[in-house]
Amino acid sequence: MIGDGEAETGPLAASWHSDKFLDPVHDGAVLPILHLNGYKIANPTVLSRLPQHELDALLRGYGHEPLYVTGDDPATVHRAMARAIDDALDRIALLQRTAREEGIGERAHWPMSVLRTPKGWTGPAEVDGVPVEGTWRAHQVPLAGVRENPEHLRQLEAWLRSYRPEELFDADGRPVADVLACVPEGARRLGATAHANGGLLVRELPLPSLDRFAVPVDKPGTTLHEPTRVLGDFLEQVMKDTRSRRDFRVVGPDETASNRLQAVFDASGKAWQAGTLPVDEHPDRHGRVMEILSEHLCQGWLEGYLLTGRHGLFSCYEAFVHIVDSMVNQHIKWLKTSRELPWRAPIASLNYLLTSHVWRQDHNGFSHQDPGFVDHVLNKSPEVVRVYLPPDANTLLSVADHALRSRDYVNVIVAGKQPCFDWLSMDAARAHCARGAGI
Prior knowledge:
This protein is an alpha/beta fold and about 450 residues long. It folds into 2 domains: about 1-140, no CATH class; about 205-435, 3-Layer(aba) Sandwich (Rossmann fold). The chain contains 12 helices and 16 strands. It has helices at about 10-15, 45-50, 50-60, 75-100, 150-160, 175-180, 225-240, 295-305, 325-340, 370-380, 395-405, 425-435, and strands spanning about 1-5, 35, 65-70, 110-115, 125, 130, 225, 250, 270, 285, 290, 310-315, 350-355, 385-390, 410-415, 420. It has a 6-stranded parallel beta sheet with strand order 11-8-12-13-15-14, with helices on both faces. It has a 4-stranded parallel beta sheet with strand order 1-2-4-3, sandwiched between helices. Strand 12, helix 9 (about 325-340) and strand 13 form a beta-alpha-beta unit. The longest helix has 29 residues, at about 75-100. It is globular and about 80 Å long. The relative contact order is 0.10. The model has no long low-confidence stretch (mean pLDDT about 95).
């Protein structure tokens, strides 16, 4: 469910394009529900004020097939919404069945629903003679004086009684039998389904031996390698070893090759459902490398992937990862709270690989220098966050292996992509990383 105010933010505006990356053969599906109620805190929302033909053209231009539900009568709207959802689910099932049985032809155009209802629907129409329902005022507390204003208290009571609680609860406040009969049992409950508790589904990654990819170091500081290129060979093998499981992805804003991880393309192409040209490199309808020039969207994709029991790595330039500062904040808070809930199983960690870092700018210079993401993360809960600064290729391998095995952390790895000296052999790198710090 997307509110119309949220739909105008940068991350959600970009997210409409996720349908160009959704593989109907191997992936699931998302049914977007755009709720247009006209206002945000104090102003009208853009999408709610578009003429219908413009809104329809916009959504179809994004590649969706919109289904519209509009009204202010609850019974009518609820029935119409139920029909729209049934219709959308039938369309999704048909698209998936066709792709899986007949193969992918042209890009799927997925359904979505547009629900248009008044702001503050079913709430007080007026308060103190001022319109509330259907206005921006409904976004706030519509009856702010219930403790000292008898009229506000009377309106609050009338509002709550309009939901007919006596039909829903018995004299002791327990839900009546008809209500309880609608509640699913066991794993079909929202809080118990494994799809909402991905730690119940997560499996250990089949990580290869680091010795296969380590660079030889006979003497510190005498040879040079690009650390992330060495890591790319390791990730290629992880991609190959998860080919049938399809539970590991690399995401990033158009920087996989720039960050020297292009070896992964020998195991998987780039997820892409839109048109292609002969000059394009590595587009793949079933690819597990996901690139889009929106750090917000990469973050959202990977968070959802981890929360549903899979693994991944977010590769980005150090200076540009700040774009997701507020998003990683929320994930860190979620991880901290989830650790306190015994029924929630640990999920794979959110792993960042940051390159083009502040200490080595061989051609981008000043524009790509900003180490502040490390500061940002380190002021969060120490129970959840970890930052790694591997100085060479072998220590990067050791750190990446550790991060990909970990659970319930946000791991930030800052490593170089330019040629740099090799300091430690693989055994020495393991020992160095086990100590945690050293010279």
